[in-house]
């Protein structure tokens, strides 16, 4: 049942994002930023954790999960270091994931032949 819940919740999130892209004039970058901000808000109001326990990767893999990671990092850093934690927390919490994406993307560019759309 865990897989089914992850599938339908993650699919619903992606479908809603696709509807925003198709039915509004929002650019893809704004939709992605909106999902990250929504993940931060859901973490702040303490809805993200129960949702993640229910849907697992269906909610944590899309951009909502990245927003929640940023929120948790900032919250922990503010508790530990005070005001300066606002600026440090997000970087510390997300550094491994962002670094991994950059490194594996670079490796993939060696393996495959990247082409510009033309």
Automatic annotation (TrEMBL):
Keywords carried by this UniProt record: Membrane, Transmembrane, Transmembrane helix
Keyword match Transmembrane helix: yes
Alphabetized InterPro entries for the sequence: SpoVA
Transmembrane segments: 6-24, 31-48, 83-112
The keyword Transmembrane is assigned to this record: yes
Name assigned to this protein: SpoVA/SpoVAEb family sporulation membrane protein
Organism: Coprococcus comes
